[in-house]
């Protein structure tokens, strides 16, 4: 069932969020050491911030702020924290986020609404193929959301295709929660072991961590590969630890829907101004209803496009398109602006590429360079030439390419926290 606020008019949603915003600003003034200091430094009177447009008067908060003043963001004593999690540290040192009992309830509410958006009902069983330990918020959110919705959930954890298939065949889940590239490994394992995966009872997949679609919402190379093998519904979801909120696709699959009860979304340019409709900018969020570590105008580092026209599913909420890339990982290469996801998509075109890492670094004259480290069972000049030609055709650049052993790529991809494989190594200062 769609929450009433998501079907309200765009103006009614705005009025609703403005009321929530005023409450949040009062809470920050009373409880946040960081934001009290910010308001004082910039002579900001939160009582004068009454509309979403008024938010522009407040400076944005950066990941560096959160890293450098982590403790000052906490609005409750540590004794009130029920669960401690950390960010993945993709763009710097990991940050600690605490959740109170109310925050855990909010997290459950968010994920239950997200699952419902993707068509999950109480009768469904979800198989979780990502970790719920290692201070990882997402796995916990999925579990709490399924519990709130009343659906079943099986916590299998990451990797091990044999265990995943044993669980699928034994417990008959209807949804998988999975990183899309791992879904290809599940298909490969099933084909090698004569598992009739197309009749396994899986009807849909909630895909995390990797893009499935291009900016026009058509499936990208990875999404096409999956669908060509296994014709099941694919739903994208986007979230981060800091926001404790997810944007999830509905059946129309035209972007991830905002939950207006829990978050305010802005898409900003370098100067902190809202970009025009349909233009890319940095996703900037204000959390609503967070008790322990609320955030105000927090720059996520992700470059995206927002879509504000009503969705044919009946929701009138803002929707986010696929991540174009991370702002810090933008590459200026031979006059062309690139983001790693565009390179990911091209490398997924080659079946013989078993794994890869994109290295970004500065050359001797201080300009950006790209090196692709690739493991493949084919190290021929023909494959090398084909990859370079593909890059020239699609991105108008030809990066350096180096073939490596599979074990070396796996070592480079290994995350310190063991959450998700690293595919971009940015060595620039």
Mean pLDDT: 91
Number of helices: 12
Oligomer: single chain
Biggest sheet descriptor: 9 strands, mixed
Overall number of strands: 21
Gross morphology? globular
Which consecutive residue ranges, at least 5 long each, have pLDDT under 50?
none
Global Rg: 22 Å
Q: Percent helix among the residues?
A: 25-40%
Task: Label the structural class.
Answer: alpha/beta
Q: Please list the strands of the largest sheet in the order they lie side by side.
A: 4-3-5-6-7-8-9-14-13
Q: Assess the beta-strand content as a share of residues.
A: 15-25%
The separation of the N and C termini measures 48 Å
Structure keywords:
429 residues, nine-stranded mixed β-sheet, alpha/beta
Written description of the protein model:
With 429 residues, the protein is of the alpha/beta class. The protein is 31% helix and 23% strand. It is built from 12 helices and 21 strands. It has a 9-stranded mixed sheet with strand order 4-3-5-6-7-8-9-14-13. It has a 4-stranded antiparallel sheet with strand order 10-11-12-15. A 4-stranded mixed sheet has the order 20-19-18-21, with helices on both faces. Strand 8 and strand 9 form a beta hairpin. The longest helix has 22 residues, at 10-31. The protein is globular, with a radius of gyration of 22 Å. The model has no long low-confidence stretch (mean pLDDT 91).
